[in-house]
Amino acid sequence: MDDTSEQLELPPSLRWLKWLVTALTLTLILGVITIVGLLVTRLPLGTTPAFPENLTLPEGVSPQAITRGKGWVAVVTDDGRILIFDTNGQMTQEIAVNR
Question: What is the three-class DSSP state of 58?
Answer without folding.
Answer: coil
